[in-house]
Amino acid sequence: MESTTNTLLEPVITPADLLVHWQGHRGLTRRLIEAFPEEAFFNYTIGGMRTFADMVMELLAIAGPGIKEIATGETQKLIEEVNHGNSKSKILELWDEATVEINTYWAQVKPEQFQQKIKAFGQYEGTVWSSIFYFIDNEIHHRGQAYVYLRALGVEPPFFYER
After folding, report:
1. What is the DSSP string of 46-100?
2. pTM of the model
3. Is the CATH code 1.20.120.450 the one for domain 15-152?
């Protein structure tokens, strides 16, 4: 009879590593928000794209509520309109609150949940890990648009690799 052994392999990335990775992206996006001239943040567009403020509202609607939904199992509403009074400092305050919310709910997500199937915001079917990757990928996508805006405005953006 042949002997079999089960070997536990180290994961490629741990949940803690993934959170650090995500928060690194969020820190870079925050610096990009800071780099925007206030007026341009709320009004500047190219080629029919939304303002960066509108894109950031989408990111805020997804990140904190998304991880809260994953942690609690309670479907969240995708609310992209928040009264920010066209104030970049208010947007940054909301960004910082979302960072705390992400850290708080992340601590409640168990490693075995990452493979579970979910329907994020009652709309997007996938797994917990694919939803989190979507949150990160979406942020990177909109940050890329913001880099184009800043360059067109003659503003040097933060280096993309400094997370």
Report:
1. STTPPPHHHHHHHHHHHHHHHHHHHHH-PPPP-------TT-HHHHHHHHHHHHH
2. 0.89
3. yes
